[in-house]
Design brief:
This protein has 162 residues and is of the alpha+beta class. It has one domain. 51% of the residues lie in helices and 22% in strands. The protein has helices spanning 22-37, 47-50, 86-108, 111-136, 144-156; strands at residues 7-12, 41-43, 55-62, 65-72, 77-84, 140-142. β3 and β4 form a beta hairpin. 25% of the residues are buried.
């Protein structure tokens, strides 16, 4: 794993996050932890601005836009990248519906039914990661697993207590 093209700190704007119960807060912490353990993150800013990483990411959501505030590890600014949530909105909604179906199924469904729902849920998560990577490609280069983990964090802005 590259030590220069990676995130070493992630902060989520608390004002952007939806109200969270203990389960949702736990999911957010796991997503941040997993992302920090393994990621590939390369801002595409001009070389003199970007320099060498590692990087810090301040992620927020305002007025239907995601804001990726990318900085050097020492907090020197690299740039803010804005992205509309609209291309992800349907995927996030479908992902949440599949998650709810999954949580309901694990209480009473057969293992085969649970596995089917889980496969659909993972497929939707992968779709969200692919959309995110495609939308960021000219701003931030990420690999597939980093995209999956970032999609999880983006979903956390929309999670409601269950």
């Amino acid at each position: 794993m590259s030590t220069t093209h990676r995130l070493v700190r992630i902060e989520l704007d608390q004002q952007s996050l939806s109200g969270a119960n203990a389960d949702i807060e736990h999911e957010r912490k796991i997503a941040v932890y997993d992302l920090l353990q393994d990621n590939n993150f390369k801002p595409m800013a001009e070389e003199e601005l970007r320099g060498e990483g590692p990087y810090a990411l301040y992620l927020s959501s305002r007025e239907g836009r995601l804001i990726f505030d990318v900085r050097k590890e020492d907090d020197a600014e690299i740039g803010q990248f804005h992205m509309s949530v609209s291309p992800l909105r349907r995927t996030i909604k479908d992902y949440f519906l599949l998650c709810e179906s999954y949580y309901d199924a694990i209480r009473s469904a057969t293992p085969e039914h649970i596995e089917t729902i889980d496969m659909a849920r993972r497929s939707m998560h992968n779709e969200g990661a692919e959309i995110l990577a495609a939308r960021l490609k000219d701003k931030i280069e990420i690999d597939f697993n980093t995209g999956r983990r970032l999609f999880t964090l983006i979903c956390s802005f929309h999670m409601k207590g269950r």
